[in-house]
């Protein structure tokens, strides 16, 4: 492979990674309104990045075995998870006695990471069929989604300061809207 083909492949993978990472950015924007510490934001970004490495790798390894069927299902599962997360954030913003039921910690973080990386699995299926360089693609996906997650979480944190007590409801609404988009579009 010559240099121009290598650059074109990296550019193509970068564009795909950016498109996939925009879900992580958008969801991070909503989750960032939970008044997260910077150390938690850093950790969440790393976990999201790891999921954006693992999921396309798993998809590429599965190859064309389930690509025709699983691509649509991944969007529905991811959308459903985001609907649940968004709904519970909206509901908890109206309650003064309890906090968020699902926080981006422990199992909640796994659910969060899984919901924004399921589409990476289906993209991985396609890349596996076309013979993309698996490790390079996964690393590019992981790095870009980590950066976009950090940007979304930090921007969400800033927005939360501006909107005050309505920030959690706004964040939940963003997650809910993204979930609807994944399911119906």
Automatic annotation (TrEMBL):
GO terms for cellular component: plasma membrane. One of its GO terms (molecular function) is manganese ion transmembrane transporter activity. It comes from the Bacteria. It is a multi-pass membrane protein. This is Putative manganese efflux pump MntP. It comes from Bacillus solimangrovi. The chain crosses the membrane at residues 6-29, 41-61, 67-87, 99-118, 130-154, 166-184. Coiled coil: none annotated. The lineage of its organism: Bacteria, Bacillati, Bacillota, Bacilli, Bacillales. Probably functions as a manganese efflux pump. It is found in: Cell membrane. Keywords: Cell membrane, Ion transport, Manganese, Membrane, Transmembrane, Transmembrane helix, Transport. InterPro entries: Mntp/YtaF, Put_MntP. The gene is mntP. Its main location: membrane. Belongs to the MntP (TC 9.B.29) family.
